[in-house]
Give the backbone structure.
Amino acid sequence: MKKNTANILSFVIATAISLALTACATSPEGRKQLTLLPDEQLNAMGIQSFEQIKQETPITENKNVENYVRCIANRIIPHVAENPNPAGWEVQVFESDQANAFALPGYKIGVYTGLLDYAKNQDQLAAVMGHEVAHVIARHGNERVSQQLATEAGLSVASVMLGGDQSSGTNQLILAGLGLGAQYGVILPFSRSHESEADLIGLELMAKAGFDPGESVQLWKNMATAGASPPEFMSTHPSSETRIKQLQERIPQAKPYFDAAVKQGKRAQCKL
Ligand SMILES: [Zn+2]
């Protein structure tokens, strides 16, 4: 009996290890990642979460704002490498004082109107949207859910999740993994390494799309100087001297993409 239990246990451990080994990927910045779930599953989770948000949050009726945000998204999306679905992205602007934005696996982008108080021009808003899309490109959601599964939740939650159970605990885990935790009362920022990667990938993305990467620094300064009531975005994306310094160091690398876009007459012209 004991021997059987030990056998089962060693089988489970071996399976978990081999799963973990086969699920090792490399991020666009060259960092090793644990991604246990197939991308299709993450996409399905993202689509489901987006539908939920659309049911709970009013979509803006301000066509100018909607067109402005879509203009920026439409410029960024074609520059997403390995993008099998460039025409299939859904971009929604939610009417809310929240200063926040997000992108989800499954080709979804959401921007809250409150963000426009901090992202004061097309380049600054492109910095936020590029950063959010970069989290998706670098598969940070998959990595976060995988880390949770591997370290905290264990195989029992994995089986519940893979079985599609939608209990609130599982939902919270998925939402937190996708970076939406804060909106649902669980503040769980992306790790510093995820934030740095998203900043750097986002910078290149916005520059290629014809937005001035130098404005990213001003965006983060706007966020940081908000005072007593910092924008919601800050709870999952803390601004810091380090972040601003890293961006400043990387801007010279992104700038040539922007200069090339300008030279080709592709400077972004998204106006509110
Ligand atoms: Zn982020």
Notes: Residues 131, 135, 190, 195, 198, 237 surround zinc ion (CB under 6 Å). The chain is about 55% helix and 5% strand. The longest helix spans residues 140-162. The beta strands are 24-26, 32-34, 90-94, 101-104, 108-112.
